[in-house]
Amino acid sequence: MADMKLPVMESFYTIQGEGHNQGKAAFFIRLGGCDVGCVWCDVKESWPAAAHPQHSVAEICADVLASGAQNVVITGGEPSLYDLTALTTALKAAGLQVWIETAGTNPLVGFFDWICVSPKKFKAILPENLAIAHELKVIVYHKSDLAWAETHQKDLNKAAKQYLQPEWSKENEMLPLIIDYVKANPDWQISLQTHKYMNIP
Known about the structure:
Blueprint: E1 5-15, E2 25-31, E3 54-56, H1 57-67, E4 71-75, H2 85-93, E5 97-102, E6 114-117, H3 127-132, E7 135-140, H4 144-150, E8 161-166, H5 171-184, E9 189-190, H6 194-197
Parallel strand pairs: 2-4, 4-5, 5-6, 6-7, 7-8, 8-9
Antiparallel strand pairs: 1-2, 1-3
């Protein structure tokens, strides 16, 4: 299974900038291919899977191990498009923590230590992914997204962390609304894209 290949847009060792694991060092594997298509996506070049080179599981793992990372984030694009059993098995066999960031539009296939689901209005999340999520992270692009975020709670794993994060281009407008909302609804927390403040990937 080490010769199984996945479309990799980019990979890099950096600091996780968002959500529960914010501030921790992590190696990011950004897979190409997306079935969601957010209008405000800042990595639209990741959408066409065929535009990105195929890398074997062995090659991907070698890059991760060479970095010295202890944590790995599989993101996209939309990583739930792929069977990640081989990749996550290999990463965990190497003693690494494996995290995934997904819109949850497809069944999650693989072994994950932390599942961050970030639902989007452009394609519905599967309720089964909310049930296994460790973290719900809703991007707030419009004030209506605050009420929309609440609609996911009925299917959400009750132990999951809940985050509201302003979309970067709307942060000045949305952050004050989020602050007031979290003060009135303390089940939620605020997530910021701190890697952009730090000017790192």
